[in-house]
Every structure is written in C-alpha cells, then in structure tokens.
C-alpha cells in the first residue's frame, strides 16, 4: 500500500466499491457514495487524561475513582476528593437553586450538559418537576429569544441554505452514527413567540433532552437539527449578534426543494427507521411536510399530532370527573392552526370510532375561532385547507365572547399563541352554563397562555378543571388549594418515540396516537382526580412513558408496521429495559 494518504484513501474506496470487502458491509453507507462525493475521515481512539475529562459522554468530574484516575492518566488533573454521583447531584441542585433568574439556571444546565452528560440527565430525571420549566417551556422560549447572546458552544446540527446540494455531507459531520430520533425545526413558529430563525435551535435541543430524560432514548441516538432558510424577523436581521443567515426566508419551490434534499439525505444516511419529529414549523409548511413525507418516512409532527394526543388523553381522563362521554361535549377552540385543528381532528376520530358515527358528523360538535372569528360555512372558500372541515353552518361571529355565548361549549381550548385572550367575561360565560367548565390554555410560553390558573379558578369560583401548556403553581382560592395540570405534548412524544423505536416502526398512524392517549389517560389515579387533575404528575413520567411506549408498540405490531420481530411478549418490560440510565459506568 502506498504511503501517500490520498492514495490509501482512494485504494480503500475503490476496493470497497468493487465489492471485495470480505463480506463485511460498510455500515456508514460510504460504499454507496459516488467517487467524487466527499466523505469525512472518521477516527476512533480511546480517550484518556485531559481529553477524557473534556468529553461530556464519559466525564464524571470528581466521581472518577482512584483506580480510574490511575488507569486513565487523570491523577493530578483533579483535586483529591472523590464524590459520589448523588453528592454531585446534591451540590449541582444547590448551586442551581442559588440562581433566581430562570435563564441563568438554563445556562447553568446547558453548561452541565456540555460538561457531564450523565450528571445532567440524572439531575433532570430525579428533579423533573423542578427542572422541566427550565430546559423546556417557559424558559427555553426566553433562551431562544436570546440565543445569540447566551450562545457558547454550538449544540445540534445547523443546515443552512449555504449547504444546498451537500446536506448528506453535513449529516456525516455529526459525530454519532446510530441516530434514532431527529427533532428538526426551521424556527418559523417557536412556541407562541413567532419567527426566531436559527435561534430556534433551543427547541430541538430541549425536546431531545426530554426524549432522553422522560422517554429513555440514549442521548447519542438523538440529533437536534435546525434548518436555516433565513428569517423574516426584522429584529434578528438587524442584530449584529444574530447567529443565522441574514436574509429573508426562502419560500415556494426553493423551500420545498431544500426540505426534500434534507428528507432524502436523512433516509439515505440513517435508513428507514429513524424518527423525524417536525417541531415548530409555521402551519403553511407543517401540514404539507407531514402529508408529503408520512408515507415514505417515519415522521411525526409534534405540534399537530403530539398535542392532539395529549389533549385527547386529558379529555378521556376528564370523563370520570365530569361523568360525560366525549360525544356529550361541545368543543370550542380559540386558534385554528396546527395545534387547534390537529386536536380537533383526533377528537372527532376518537368519537367516530367510539360511536360508529361518520367523522363528518362527529366534527359538527367541534367549533374553531381564528383571527377572523368563528369558522363558518360562509367563509369556506377563503379558508386554508386544514380549516375547511370545521366550517359549519352558523351566522358569522367576530369575537370569542360572542362565539362562546352562541355555541355554549362545555370545553374551551386555547391554541392561539396569544396571551390573555380568555378574558374574565369569556371564563365567566363558561361558568354560567357549565357546572364544571373544562378550560385548557395551551399556548406557550407562560406569557402567551390564554389565561392563568388563578384567573381560571377565581373567575369560575373554583369550579374549573384547568390545564395549561406551560406550568402554573398551585392556587389558593377560598381556603382550598387547586392544582393546575400541564397539558403539554411532552407527556406523549417521549413514550411514543420509544414505542416506535423499540418496535422498529416504519410509519406513524393515527391509531398509534389514539393508543398513546388511552395509555396516558389510564395513568391518572383517583388521587389525581381528587386534586382536580386530568394528567398524572411528572414525577412518574418514565413509568408513564414506558406504558405509552408499550401501547404504541402493540399498535405498531397489530398494524403490521413493526420491523423488530418477533414481537416481545411483555412490551412494558421491553420498554423499561430499553431505557437509558444516567448512572455512571465504571471504566476498566
Ligand atoms: N401545550 C402544548 O403542548 C402545545 C402548545 N402549542 C401552542 O399553541 C400555540 C399555537 O400553535 P400552532 O397551532 O402551532 O400555531 P398556528 O400559527 O398554526 O395557529 C395559531 C392559530 O391562532 C389563531 N390566532 C392568532 N391570533 C389570534 C387571535 N388574536 N384571536 C383568535 N385567533 C388567533 C390563528 O388565526 P389565523 O389562522 O387566522 O392566523 C391560527 O389559527 C402556540 O403558542 C404554541 O406554543 C402548540 C403545540 C403544543
Ligand atoms: C409544546 C410545543 O410543542 C409548543 O408549544 O410548540
Ligand atoms: Mg412545538
């Protein structure tokens, strides 16, 4: 073999391409690359000493034992004390609690994730109720808004228009190979905060940390991606610290072609079974992307489908408190976009399956209001396609209050992204014709919630059943404590993803979402109901996720869409055994 490295590389490629590989296939797919396609030269080495301490996957900080310090050239690089992971956790939680500004906690947690991954996940798992609002909504929203200035080390993969024609190569730059879940955004509708362009990266990073902490997916199998096609946010375009492309968003053919290149590259690089979760795309792309790729890829839109599944779960659970079946309700939504119409459609499907009524009929119990008022048949021609099934016969109504008084809903759901829209009059109206009005203020972050928990309870004199997208603290009203629930898709996507992965699913179907809803609803206990909750607390979320995964897995096998055969007998056990544990490993 030549000593010229280029020559070696060429020999290697041509040898492999000729198929003389000793029967061993190239798992990285580089055999399939054309000769003129550039490949990344991967090197695998054993980390020790300083490099080991700087690798977040293996770093244990002061928890390295004397034996490990000796064997891995760490002696002297650390102070002499040896701390257990539990003591490290206690210390880190103590440090975090010193910060009074939530964003400072966020930055400290991101630093920890980059320094010591296992400790980060142990903290998150053991203190989920306390830390969820930091790594996720509401704080992640503020983090995205200020991403340019808090940005230290890049996380995730940035794919911008500059990489057009080379997306496959960019994917190959990511250091991990066995990717199982990708969360991708183009940053155009970040929570209810609008277009944050490239700074939306906080969302895929946060969602994937929940895939690991709540659903047990290995961190190395998770890939956060931000597609940067520009931004229409003038403030960002004029910000000298903005981290993304300073140009207006690509649209039309240019956008579609770029996304198509991305989806093809993902499948080529990671195969058929990688789950792609679309997150926080604007609705003018979200519905189209989902319908375009749902029959060729394992794709899932969290805002449309995950939100639908979590809300349906709450409604199924609420049947016990309200003594009413789903078909007895009348639903009114403020907001007719991804979340609103996604939820509406899954409710209609569930009622249709339960009662045997055609879905066109079950839709008639569901009404939606958008920025122009109640969606009614006289508006049909001018409506976006995802709103059209909800255009029922009714005279036009401009305002929410008018719609509430006209429709008299039993359930009011906010998915508008606009805060304070469930006014006192609206909530009081709900309380006049419902003994127990069910009010869901789903918009995130907290600043965009349609009403607060306190408002919901006081304006209904303590009769509301309330849940919100971002968490609210318990409320004292007339000597009684009310516990607001959190209706957020993070109850669903980690368990759903685990179920899809463990069964080797190749497609996502509505029946899997329904299975996830039933599984989540079945986890609400009598004690939770007594507290006024329609969702179980997050403290047991890994157990909940295992149950959701088992139900989704069972449905995947039933539908013939599972590729991990034969089907394991006990799917809950299977799910639990698949889950990542953040406990430190011992090094030889
Ligand atoms: N809790 C959870 O798990 C989730 C919460 N969400 C939250 O839901 C919100 C909406 O998300 P999404 O559905 O994706 O967004 P979309 O942009 O797809 O939809 C927003 C909808 O709200 C309507 N709207 C906007 N302003 C008003 C207003 N002043 N009065 C009445 N309607 C209005 C829009 O009307 P028009 O069509 O006329 O423009 C549109 O129909 C966001 O805040 C998001 O964070 C989303 C997913 C999950
Ligand atoms: C929770 C979520 O996905 C959203 O607000 O967009
Ligand atoms: Mg979202």
Radius of gyration: 25 Å
Strand % is 5-15%
Bound molecules: NADPH dihydro-nicotinamide-adenine-dinucleotide phosphate, pyruvic acid, magnesium ion
Largest sheet: 7 strands, mixed
CATH fold-level label of the largest domain: Rossmann fold
How many helical stretches? 25
In terms of structural class, how would the helical and strand content be classed? alpha/beta
How would you write the strand order of the largest sheet? 8-7-6-9-10-11-14
The helix fraction, in percent, is 40-55%
The CATH class assignment of the largest domain is Alpha Beta
| Low confidence ranges | 1-27
In short:
Helix content is 44%, strand content 9%.
Description:
- The chain is of the alpha/beta class.
- It folds into three domains: 47-113, Hemocyanin, N-terminal domain; 136-296, Rossmann fold (3-Layer(aba) Sandwich), CATH 3.40.50.10380; 303-488, NAD(P)-binding Rossmann-like Domain (Rossmann fold), CATH 3.40.50.
- Helix content is 44%, strand content 9%.
- It contains 25 helices and 14 strands.
- It has helices at residues 5-17, 49-53, 66-71, 85-98, 102-115, 117-126, 128-135, 139-145, 147-150, 167-173, 202-213, 234-237, 252-270, 283-293, 302-322, 338-355, 359-362, 400-407, 424-433, 453-459, 493-503, 510-521, 526-530, 541-558, 571-578, and strands spanning 157-160, 181-185, 222-228, 275-278, 298-301, 331-334, 366-370, 373-374, 411-414, 438-441, 465-468, 475-477, 480-482, 485-486.
- A seven-stranded mixed beta sheet has the order 8-7-6-9-10-11-14, with helices on both faces. A five-stranded parallel beta sheet has the order 1-3-2-4-5, sandwiched between helices. Strands 12-13 form a two-stranded antiparallel ribbon.
- Helix 19 links the parallel strand 9 and strand 10 (438-441).
- Helix 5 packs across helix 6 (117-126) and helix 15 (302-322) crosses helix 22 (510-521).
- It is globular, with a radius of gyration of 25 Å.
- The relative contact order is 0.09.
- Residues 1-27 have low confidence and may be disordered.
- NADPH dihydro-nicotinamide-adenine-dinucleotide phosphate (NDP) binds next to helix 15, helix 16 and strand 7.
- NADPH dihydro-nicotinamide-adenine-dinucleotide phosphate binds at residues 189, 191-192, 283, 303, 307, 310, 334-340, 369-372, 415-418, 421, 442-444, 448, 469, 487-489.
């Amino acid at each position: 073999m030549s000593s010229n490295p280029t020559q070696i590389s060429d020999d290697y490629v041509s040898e492999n391409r000729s198929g003389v590989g000793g029967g061993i296939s190239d798992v990285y797919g580089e055999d399939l690359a054309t000769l003129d396609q550039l490949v990344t030269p991967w090197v695998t080495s054993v980390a020790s000493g300083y490099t080991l301490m700087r690798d977040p996957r293996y770093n244990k900080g002061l928890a390295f034992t004397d034996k490990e310090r000796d064997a891995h050239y760490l002696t002297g690089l650390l102070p002499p004390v040896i701390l257990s992971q539990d003591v490290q956790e206690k210390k880190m939680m103590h440090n975090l609690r010193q910060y009074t500004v939530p964003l400072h906690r966020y930055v400290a947690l991101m630093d920890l994730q980059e320094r010591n991954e296992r400790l980060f996940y142990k903290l998150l798992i053991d203190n989920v109720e306390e830390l969820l609002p930091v790594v996720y909504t509401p704080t992640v929203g503020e983090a995205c808004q200020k991403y340019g200035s808090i940005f230290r080390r890049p996380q995730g993969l940035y794919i911008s228009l500059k990489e057009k024609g080379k997306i496959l190569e960019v994917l190959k730059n990511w250091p991990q190979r066995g990717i199982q879940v990708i969360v991708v955004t183009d940053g155009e509708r970040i929570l209810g905060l609008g277009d944050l362009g490239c700074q939306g990266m906080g969302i895929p990073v946060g969602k994937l940390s929940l895939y690991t902490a709540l659903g047990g997916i290995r961190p190395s199998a998770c890939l956060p991606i931000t597609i940067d096609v520009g931004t229409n946010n003038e403030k960002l375009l004029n910000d000298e610290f903005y981290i993304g492309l300073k140009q207006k968003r690509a649209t039309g053919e240019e956008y579609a072609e770029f996304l198509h290149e991305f989806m093809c590259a993902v499948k080529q690089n990671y195969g058929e079974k990688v789950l792609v979760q679309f997150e926080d795309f604007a609705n003018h792309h979200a519905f189209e992307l989902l319908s375009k790729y749902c029959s060729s890829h394992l794709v899932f839109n969290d805002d449309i489908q995950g939100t639908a599944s979590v809300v349906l779960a709450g409604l199924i659970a609420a049947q016990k408190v309200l003594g009413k079946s789903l078909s007895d309700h009348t639903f009114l939504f403020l907001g007719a976009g991804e979340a609103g119409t996604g939820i509406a459609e899954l409710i209609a499907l569930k009622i249709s399956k339960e009662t045997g009524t055609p879905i066109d009929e079950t839709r008639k119990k569901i009404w939606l209001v958008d920025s122009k008022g109640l969606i009614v048949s006289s508006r049909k021609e001018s409506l976006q396609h995802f709103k059209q099934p909800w255009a029922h016969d009714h005279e036009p109504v401009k305002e929410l209050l008018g719609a509430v008084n006209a429709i008299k809903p039993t359930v009011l759901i906010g998915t508008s992204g606009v805060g304070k829209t469930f006014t006192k009059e609206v909530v009081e109206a709900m309380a006049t014709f419902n003994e127990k009005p069910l009010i869901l203020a789903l918009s995130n972050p907290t600043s965009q919630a349609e009403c607060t928990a306190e408002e919901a309870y006081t304006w209904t004199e303590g009769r509301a059943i309330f849940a919100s997208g971002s968490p609210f603290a318990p409320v004292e009203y007339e000597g009684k404590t009310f516990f607001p629930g959190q209706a957020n898709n993070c109850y669903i996507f980690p368990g759903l993803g685990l179920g899809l992965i463990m069964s080797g699913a190749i497609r996502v179907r509505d029946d899997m979402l329904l299975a996830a809803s039933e599984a989540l609803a079945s986890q609400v206990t009598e004690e939770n109901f007594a507290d006024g909750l329609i969702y179980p607390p997050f403290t047991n979320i890994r157990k909940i996720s295992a149950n959701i995964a088992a139900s989704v897995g069972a449905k995947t096998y039933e539908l013939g869409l599972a590729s991990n055969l034969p089907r394991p007998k006990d799917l809950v056990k299977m799910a639990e055994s698949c889950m990542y544990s953040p406990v430190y490993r011992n090094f030889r």
